[in-house]
Design a protein that fits this description.
By secondary structure, the chain is an alpha/beta fold. The chain folds into 2 domains: 41-132 and 258-325, D-Maltodextrin-Binding Protein, domain 2, CATH 3.40.190; 134-231, D-Maltodextrin-Binding Protein, domain 2, CATH 3.40.190.10. It is built from 11 helices and 10 strands. It has a 5-stranded mixed beta sheet, sandwiched between helices.
Length: 332
C-alpha cells in the first residue's frame, strides 16, 4: 500500500506543479497584456534634485501619476552634463516604464566628443513639459541699467567684462555665447560647478553678469539685489513684463530657449508614446500645474509628438552650430 500510494503521489505532485506553473504564466500573460501603465514608472532626471529639469518634471508628473493611477518615481542621476542619466534610459527596456526628463540632450550632442548613446537614434521624443526663460542679471553696484550699457562697456574695453555660469556647456553658459555672438562683443567666462556658487559671485559684484533661470532670480530681482537686463526667450516673461527680450533690444538671433521634455527609449511602441503624450498634455492643462508653472516662471510649449520630434532634431543642429561658432572646446 505504501509503495502504491507513493507511485500515485508522484504523478499527482508533478501534475500539480504543472498546473501551478500554468496559472503563474497565465497571470503573467494577463499582466503583460494589460494597457500601459500597469505598474510603477521610473523617470530619470540626469541632474541633481532642485535643478530646473527636476523641479519642472516633478510638478507635471505628480499630476500624471494621479491620472494614470500608478506611482511615478523620479530618480536623479547626475554627472557628465546629463549624459550618465540619459544613457540609463537609452539602454533601458522599451516598455514605457523608464522615461527621461531633460533639456540637455541637444547640448550634449554638440559638446561631447563621444557619447555612450546615439542622440538622434536612441531616444523617442514624447512631449515638451515647458520652457523656463533665462534672465540676464547683474548686481546694482556694477552700474548697468540696460543690456545696451553692458555691451557698450564690453566693446569699449575688450576683456574687461566677465560672466559666470553653472559650468561649461550649461544653459547659462550657452545663452551668453549666443548673446555674445549676436552682439559681437567679448566677455570672459568664469564657470562654476553649480548655479548657486555662480549666482553668489554676481550678487557680490565680483562677476559682471549671468543668465539665471527665472525662478531662481525673481525673488532677488524683486528685493532689488539683482538688476534684470533682459530675458533669453522669444517672448517677454509674464512675471517680468517690463524686462525686454534680447531681440527686443535689436540682437537678432540671440534667443535662447531653455526647455525640458520627456523622452522614451527609441523602440518604445507608438501606442505607449501616444498615451504618455496624451496624459502629459492633460496634466499641463490642469489648474494646479498651471499655477505652479506661473510661480516658477515656466511657459507652456504645446506640441504634438511629430512637432516635438522635428523641434528636437532642429535644436540639435542649432547647438552644434553654436558650439562651433563660439569655439567652445569639445568635452571628453
Amino acid at each position: 500500500m505504501t509503495v502504491h500510494k507513493a507511485v500515485q503521489q508522484g504523478p499527482c505532485r508533478a501534475l500539480a506543479a504543472i498546473v501551478g506553473l500554468s496559472i503563474v504564466l497565465a497571470v503573467s500573460d494577463v499582466a503583460s497584456a494589460q494597457p500601459w501603465p500597469n505598474r510603477p514608472i521610473t523617470v530619470i532626471v540626469p541632474f541633481g534634485a532642485g535643478s530646473a529639469s527636476d523641479v519642472i518634471a516633478r510638478v507635471v508628473l505628480h499630476q500624471v501619476s494621479e491620472q494614470v493611477g500608478q506611482p511615478i518615481i523620479i530618480v536623479n542621476r547626475g554627472g557628465a552634463g546629463g549624459t550618465l542619466g540619459s544613457n540609463l534610459v537609452a539602454k533601458a527596456a522599451s516598455d514605457g516604464y523608464t522615461v527621461l526628463a531633460t533639456g540637455a540632450l541637444a547640448a550634449a550632442q554638440a559638446l561631447y566628443r563621444t557619447l555612450p548613446y546615439e542622440t538622434l537614434q536612441d531616444f523617442a521624443p514624447v512631449i515638451p513639459l515647458g520652457l523656463q526663460p533665462l534672465v540676464l542679471v547683474t548686481a546694482p553696484s556694477k552700474g548697468y541699467k540696460t543690456l545696451a550699457d553692458l555691451i557698450t562697456v564690453a566693446k569699449a574695453r575688450p576683456g574687461a567684462v566677465n560672466f559666470t555660469s553653472s559650468g561649461v556647456g550649461s544653459a547659462s553658459h550657452l545663452a551668453v555665447e549666443r548673446l555674445r555672438l549676436s552682439g559681437n562683443f567679448e566677455a570672459m567666462h568664469i564657470p562654476f560647478r553649480g548655479a548657486g556658487e555662480a549666482l553668489t559671485e554676481v550678487l557680490a559684484g565680483r562677476v559682471d553678469f549671468m543668465f539665471v533661470p527665472l525662478a531662481a532670480a525673481l525673488p532677488l530681482i524683486k528685493d532689488n539685489r539683482l538688476v534684470a537686463l533682459a530675458v533669453s526667450s522669444s517672448r517677454r516673461a509674464s512675471s517680468l513684463p517690463a524686462v525686454p527680450t534680447t531681440t527686443d533690444v535689436g540682437l537678432t538671433g540671440s534667443t535662447f530657449e531653455f526647455w525640458v521634455g520627456l523622452f522614451l527609449p527609441a523602440k518604445t511602441p507608438s501606442d505607449i508614446v501616444t498615451r504618455l503624450h496624451k496624459e502629459v498634455a492633460i496634466a499641463l492643462e490642469t489648474p494646479t500645474v498651471r499655477e505652479n508653472f506661473a510661480k516658477l516662471g515656466v511657459e507652456p510649449m504645446p506640441m504634438s509628438v511629430s512637432e516635438f520630434d522635428n523641434f528636437f532634431h532642429n535644436d540639435v543642429e542649432t547647438y552644434v552650430k553654436l558650439v562651433k561658432a563660439a569655439n567652445i572646446p569639445m568635452q571628453d
